[in-house]
Write a structure and sequence with these properties.
Elements: E1 18-21, E2 30-36, E3 40-45, E4 50-52, E5 65-67, H1 73-76, E6 90-94, H2 98-112, H3 126-129, E7 153-155, E8 158-160, H4 163-166, E9 172-174, E10 218-222, E11 226-229, E12 239-245, E13 253-264, H5 273-285, E14 294-304, H6 311-314, H7 318-321, E15 326-330, H8 336-346, H9 351-360, E16 365-369, H10 377-385, E17 393-395
Parallel strand pairs: 4-5, 5-6, 6-10, 9-11, 14-15, 15-16, 16-17
Antiparallel strand pairs: 1-2, 2-3, 3-4, 7-8, 11-12, 12-13, 13-14
Length: 410
């Protein structure tokens, strides 16, 4: 007697998950992920502990900085898989979808506990009752009425963006304190508990304003123009992210990520080392404390756009003029004569509209993603090989050759 085993489907030896290294001087950054329109889009940059959209689980990493562009399921469906009670990630998203996102995560937790109703009655689900004992959530993802259950207020000295804070602020910089996350490990339904189905001690903290089922993440609703600091990165290598509007059928954001370095203030530039030391010494002697000779300066490194038409980039945003190194943007449709009407109706990008933008900014690399499923990989390769495509383009499709084409990161 012997068992029968299933037969595997034919499988390509090439991974469907792609990767690409950024150009110098940011060549230590690696973009890993997959993207097809109406199927899934998700990218990881491990060095920044960063997830860009959550339509797919790319690998075994569980980044602690999660940026969602909009609510369509091919960009958010797997978001609940990245939350964790023991080390809640920071989730940034358009303000309009923040409440729905929290309810989505809450529903996932309810399902994981076998269903039921919230709040559970005395004789109700023992699996849900273990979450009682703290917080004042109303069961609708609404915390204690402050911040819509999105972790508003301050926790452990960390400024958290609540809905009441986001408003119409423009170019606001919000510093969120934090520590580097491990960025890995898979969620087990009880791995954060004591092995008996009970949540960890922090879950019943009566001072935590979040809904008891939403202590798995910190939601930060953003508006165009809002700037946040990535909280899990070391203070010596800070990054910021600034939200900007994308042109889509639902509220949608893109994000430009900047490396922040300290540079000498203009008034001190050109002075020698001894002269600078003398100024600092004089400041101390006069009782004015330590003279700050430098100031933080953000350098645009890359932008990640949600679903959008080419109008977002054609408007020449400031970060393009400032020399952003990489733009990761969608290119859903290839053929103008066939898909112009559909591209305009669904507010997606057509190659004919994007190409002039790419040619206008030859020093910026454009990573093209989110191709329609109507095109096979082979057809997409043939399309770009048969045209005079600028060499500052990276096509997010398997190039069919070992190591891709044109090298990794120009």
């Amino acid at each position: 007697m012997s068992p029968t085993f299933a037969t595997p489907l034919p499988h390509s030896p090439r991974s469907p998950i792609l990767e690409w290294s950024f150009p110098r001087p940011f060549h230590q950054l690696t973009l890993t992920g997959r993207s097809r329109a109406a199927w899934h889009t998700s990218f990881v940059i491990p060095q920044l502990n960063l997830l860009l959209d959550a339509g797919l689980i790319v690998n075994n990493l569980r980044p602690k900085h999660i940026f969602l562009t909009h609510g369509h399921s091919d960009h958010t469906l797997l978001a609940p898989a990245f939350v964790k009670k023991s080390d809640p990630p920071d989730v940034f998203c358009p303000a309009e979808m923040a409440g729905a996102l929290d309810r989505f995560v809450e529903a996932k937790t309810m399902l994981s506990e076998g269903g039921g109703v919230w709040p559970p009655p005395v004789d109700g689900s023992p699996y849900l009752r273990k979450y009682l004992g703290g917080g004042s959530g109303d069961g609708n993802g609404n915390g204690n009425g402050k911040g819509g259950g999105n972790g508003g207020g301050e926790e452990d000295g960390s400024e958290r963006l609540g809905k009441e804070d986001s408003g119409d602020a423009r170019q606001r910089e919000t510093s969120i304190a934090g520590t580097r996350g491990d960025g890995d490990g898979e969620e087990d339904e009880d791995e954060d508990g004591d092995g008996n189905g009970r949540p960890p001690p922090g879950n019943n903290d009566p001072t935590d304003p979040r809904h008891p089922l939403l202590r798995t993440h910190h939601t930060h609703p953003l508006q165009p123009g809002d700037t946040v600091v990535l909280p899990r990165l070391p203070a010596s290598h800070p990054y910021t992210a600034t939200a900007f509007a994308c042109d889509h059928t639902v509220p949608c954001l893109g994000y430009v990520f900047c490396a922040v370095t300290n540079k000498l203030k203009p008034e001190y530039q050109g002075l020698s080392g001894p002269e600078l030391r003398a100024l600092k010494q004089k400041s101390r002697e006069l009782g004015k404390g330590e003279l700050q000779l430098s100031t933080p300066v953000p350098t645009p490194v890359f932008a990640f756009l949600g679903d959008t038409t080419a109008a977002t980039l054609a408007s020449d945003p400031a970060w393009l003029a400032e020399g952003v190194k990489v733009v990761i943007t969608e290119c859903s449709f290839l053929y103008e004569e066939e898909h112009r009407v559909q591209a305009e109706r669904t507010r997606h990008t057509l190659w004919a509209d994007l190409e002039p933008v790419i040619r206008r900014w030859p020093k910026t690399i454009f990573v093209l993603t989110h191709f329609s499923l109507r095109y096979s990989d082979k057809e997409i390769r043939a399309f770009f090989r048969s045209r005079d495509v600028p060499d500052n383009v990276v096509v997010w499709i398997d190039g069919g050759k070992k190591g891709g084409e044109r090298g990794q990161g120009k």
